[in-house]
Amino acid sequence: xxxxxxxxxxxxxxxxxxxxxxxxxxxxxxxxxxxxxxxxxxxxxxxxxxxxxxxxxxxxxxxxxxxxxxxxxxxxxxxxxxxxxxxxxxxxxxxxxxxxxxxxxxxxxxxxxxxx
Length: 116
Description:
The chain is an all-alpha fold. It has helices at residues 2-11, 15-27, 45-63, 78-91. 48% of the residues lie in helices and 0% in strands. Helix 1 runs antiparallel to helix 2 (15-27). It is globular and about 40 Å long.
């Protein structure tokens, strides 16, 4: 997830993008995963398509080895995992209202990371 998080942070343009990037950052620190159905993919079909496109662009950027040099090692299964994640996102079709107004599975702005 660290690879995808780095790519997401490079592409993020709006609040949804940043919140999705934050979710993956949290998951990359020991979380076991998340369910795509539990994420607020936005209210309209156009917004959901934009959000899904953002995630797929981030996966493509991660697959291009964007910022892998910052890891300090070469993750042996990263390409396989990124392909699996890409396939999951491509085949996923969010439905109207899925995750909407439920907190969307995202960390809230109040749950933002704070450095001490």
